[in-house]
Amino acid sequence: MSDKNKIILEEIENIAKEKQIEPQVIYQALKEGLLKAYEKQTQKVLENIKVEIDQDQGKIKMFKTLTVVAKVTDEDLEIALSQIKTKNPDLTIGDLYDEEIPTDKFSRLAIFQAIQIFKQSIREAEKNSIYDEFIDKQGTILIGKVETVEDKYCLIKIGRAYAYLPKKNQIPGEIFTINEPNNHIKFYLEDIIKNKNYGQILASRTHPDFLSCLLELEVPEFNQLNPEGKNVIEIKEVARIPGVRAKVAIISNDDTIDAVGACIGPKGSRIQTISKELNGEKIDIILYDQDIKSFIINALAPAKVISITINEQEQQADVIVPTEQFSLAIGKNGMAAKLVARLTHWKINIISLEQAQQDNIKFDWNGNLQLDDYDQFITDLRNKNVFRQRQFRK
């Protein structure tokens, strides 16, 4: 084997290993590139051109398959018997003859086009390989190294591939750095597209399921099974305002487990770890309930509910809360109310008790704050507020 051929074989093996694609794909790309070079050189598209690659010797040859005839009428398809009879005495009229095409006479433009075709084929093969590698990881959390940070996106290196994290999928306020030892970040693999040239792997840190996956990683009860084979704790719904606040509805399939307590962890350790990962996002863990009234009441916690009236047809609920907790139920800029609506998929109208009385709205005390307990609740609430104010002044 010549040194030139040996280099060709070694280069193909190196490319295959680096791109994690089969060598046969590269050999096929070589063939396609040479065929395109021939078309560029001759300005002809012929079906009788073939490329043969000896993978053992590293030899690459190109042939034109011609039919042996007595008199040539089309030199692209035929060859005269008299022209080849001396070198090939066994050939007769009607036989096929492979005439070698000298590739060293290709023009520079033809060679350039062959190289471009070859590179494009390799890129397509690599995209397919990356897709096959990561398609089963869609919907999971991965860890990568931040390689590029731009105004509108950043690139995260994961093995041989890059994940594209657009600005809209970044948590507001978080800052990514490069060229530092601890610039690895977690992200949710939202999507992977086989044929996309840029941003093939779409990353997200704002997707609701990113929070779900973080909880499942941090809280072992999500991965434990009860005697019936169900997960001890399951996530039913997640609503997020990334970096600000989130509400997670869970259910427990084990009466002996305090599901909310398990998610929060000892002294809040588990939920604090997740909150830190989400740039300080506050996370409320609530119990899911099939009864929509109970679910909405749970979702509004820590605010108490005096009354709730639902409209099943319009999926709308009117909720009356203590006047002293109206701001708590609504949240800053209405964020708490928005999260409850997203979590329950219902439109929620929150009304203070004072407003309900002014508007003469008739209601029943059917929430989680009863009339008999109201006065004591308000007294305790005011005492707590006074205590907090004194602590703040100190």
Question: Mind explaining what this structure looks like?
Answer:
The protein is α/β, with parallel strands linked by helices. The chain is 37% helix and 25% strand. The protein has helices at 3-19, 23-42, 81-84, 108-134, 208-218, 259-264, 269-277, 292-299, 326-330, 335-344, 353-358, 371-393, and strands at 49-54, 59-69, 78-80, 96-100, 141-149, 153-158, 161-166, 184-192, 201-204, 233-241, 245-252, 282-287, 307-311, 316-321, 347-352. The protein has a five-stranded mixed β-barrel with strand order 5-6-7-9-8. Strands 1, 2, 3 and 4 form a four-stranded mixed β-sheet that branches. Helix 2 packs antiparallel against helix 4 and helix 5 packs antiparallel against helix 7 (269-277). The protein is elongated, with a radius of gyration of 35 Å. The termini are far apart. The mean pLDDT is 88.
